[in-house]
Fold this sequence. Notes:
The chain has one helix spanning 57-108. The protein is mainly α.
Amino acid sequence: MLRPKIPVNPMPTGHAMPPAVIVEPTTVIPSASTPVQPFAPMTQAPAPARPTVQLTPGAVVAVAGMGVTVVLVVGAVLVSMLLAVAITGASVAICALVIRSILASDTRR
């Protein structure tokens, strides 16, 4: 009843490897009847469809202002997390001192 049943798969589902095919390189020998055409001269690539971005002085100031804002916000979040950890550590230390004091006073009595 509690024995696992292993399914029987009549067909393999993994990747089957194709048989190895050996390909030997061949050489192309141009005949005298077909003239050899010279390569076409290199041309310049076409200009990109969209223009390059040009920042105005106002846009530079706006981007710099946003960067400063992001740095200040991230800094405030990190400092507040550090403060929370410090307050938690101090309160745990105070609780440990109080519990130790209570246990020590019980053993003296």
